[in-house]
Amino acid sequence: MKRIALNGAGLLVALFAAFPVYWMVATSLKPNSEIFASTPRPVPAEPTLAHYREILGGNLIPGVTFLDFFLNSVLVAVATVLLSGLVALLAATAVARFRFKLRTSFLIMLLVVQMIPLEALVIPLFLMIQRLGLYNTLPSLILTYLGFSLPFAVWMLRGFVAAVPKELEEAAAIDGASRAQTFRRILFPLVAPGLVATSIFSFITAWNELIFALTFINDQQKYTLPVAMTFFFGRDDTAWGSVMAASTLFTLPVIVFFLLVQRRMVSGLVAGAVKG
Amino acid sequence: MSVLNKSTGTAAARDTPARRRPRVDRLPYLLLLPCLAIITVLLLWPLGQVVAMSFFKLNNVRQLRGDREWPWVGLANYTQILGDPFFRTVLRNTVLFAAANVVLTMILGTLVGLLLNRLGKRMATFVASCVMLAWATPALTGTIVWKWIFDDTSGLVTWLFNKLPDGLSTALFGRSDWTGYGWFNSPLLFFAILTLVVVWHSFPFIAVSVLAGLKSVPSELQEAARVDGAGPWRVFWSVTFPVLRPVFGILVVLSTIWDFKVFTQQFVLAGGTQDRSTFMLSIYSYAEAFSPPPKYGLGAAIAVILTVILLLVTGLYVRMVLRQEEEA
What is the C-alpha separation between A135 and A137, in angstroms, rounded? Predict the structure, then answer.
């Protein structure tokens, strides 16, 4: 009896959590006649890829297709990931491998800057981007997202670096490897999985961001996907099939990446709180 | 290990003593330099800059580019905002919204965490996977889907309400035909739906964190309490909760910080910044600064107020984490 109640509650939770995602995909596969039918169908009766063809082939905004926005987003996110991964790895090594005067201050600063409401930085960063002449360019976004993703990336990576036994590096040093060699041949390969996990978080940060992209980019052909979607979405409220198809294509990479690394997220955020 | 053996040689003589006895090692500072530079330029400097901007009258983008003067107005932006009854409405909206969302997210998240801990292995994996989906969905698309679910003609909720027996629907809500009903038109309903969207996005993190915490509670403790005749309520408050208290503390603070500055969900749900009746601090600041005519100074002042509130909460968070690290 108790088992049944628990399982029932579990199913309810699963339904509440997963339904919107299911509904997004299901709607994107329905022909318009089903989407706007007076009685909604839980499962598409005649699934079709028409909405996907529409957004991929058609011009969302004259001369620009979904694919252009997708590529803008990929470019920004990948550049952010590469830069933030490199810088974070250096900093994480410093924090995890050395004891130096400002170490604790640096760690506290990392925690504090993660709490700065980024929404409050739109105005001053807009000023900076204007001054640098980067307004309406994708590098303005890469720069911004680099700043946003870095503190968490360092915080997360330092755990991975610390987990590599120091003895390995000491052994390498005794065998005569230089510091650069030790880093490249010992530390880097062992930290690589952690670097991948960290990169995914940076990727998601950059991929999902809306406000700054909305503010810093003016030309429609330079829009990233989130900006394009808010516009596309506002234009014609009845095109739910296409909106859901675009949403699905935008969401899919995030879900896949996210599921690969979510464990780290918890341990990164509540660092130290849970023992065992 | 073969890699290690390859590079024996002269480097050893030079490097090893330096590693053993570092006087002032410059390497860690060099490694930190790029990171520090980026954080300073892209986070700390703008944080100072937003404070500076809040003391000026900046109503033209040319001023930002440096082509025009910046007239100093002192605290005028702050007195204007704080004296505006609308600001008080916005602040009230923000605080109430954050409070409601933190409470609901914590309750739902904790319950789901406890549930996941009790379910059988296969069921737990299934439920946890579904919960992960909600967590992984980007704020933008998650909100768009909820907006579709609440669409006034073909949305699922509109359909459900139309399915209610007419008599019941009329008795409860005073209407039986819900087609064309503007779910987002009244501020209260708007905030209710926004709460639904935000809680849906944020409860998974709480659930998974609580679950992780529960795994660290020795199950013998709970069993012993149960054997001694404690009911489930008693077991939770007397055994489970004390162990989880530090986790809860951090989760409440993190949720507070997140829910205080909700932007994307609100922006998408409201379809932009036109609807002032549902403003909260972050979107208010943005709208003042960027919707024409631009008022960057005023927007900056609002952003400063938001930041100060959040930094106070952050102070709490940092103290908690540091205490954790000391104990660990």
Answer: 6
> At B8, which helix (H) or strand (E)?
none
Contact B300, B77 (CB under 8 A): yes
The pTM score is: 0.89
Which residues of chain B have a CB within 8 Å of the CB of A152?
A: none
- What chain B holds in terms of domains, given with CATH numbers, is 76-327 (1.10.3720.10)
Q: Which of B35, B193, B266 to mutate to test the interface with A (most CBs of A within 10 A)?
A: B35
The domains of chain A are located at 1-48, 49-269
User: Which own/partner contact pairs does B71-80 have at CB distance under 8 Å and 24+ positions apart?
Assistant: B73/B297, B77/B297, B77/B298, B77/B300, B77/B301, B78/B54, B78/B301, B80/B298
Supply the ipTM of this predicted assembly.
Answer: 0.89
Residue B168 clears pLDDT 80, i.e. is over it: yes
What tokens appear for A4 in the block? 């049944």
Nearest CA among A123, A137, A131 for reference residue B290: A123
Task: Look at A140-144, A214-218, B237-241 and tell me which has the smallest mean pLDDT.
Answer: B237-241
State how far residue B101 is from chain A, nearest Cα, in angstroms.
Answer: 16
Contacts of A161 in chain B (CB under 8 A): none
Q: Which CATH architecture has domain A49-269?
A: Orthogonal Bundle (1.10)
The pLDDT confidence band at residue B1, using thresholds 50, 70 and 90, is very low
Average pLDDT estimate for A38-65? 87
Is A188 in CB contact (< 8 Å) with chain B? no
Rounded to a whole number of angstroms, the distance from the CA of B35 to the nearest CA of chain A is: 6
B229 backbone φψ class: left, alpha, beta (φ>0; ψ -120 to 50): left
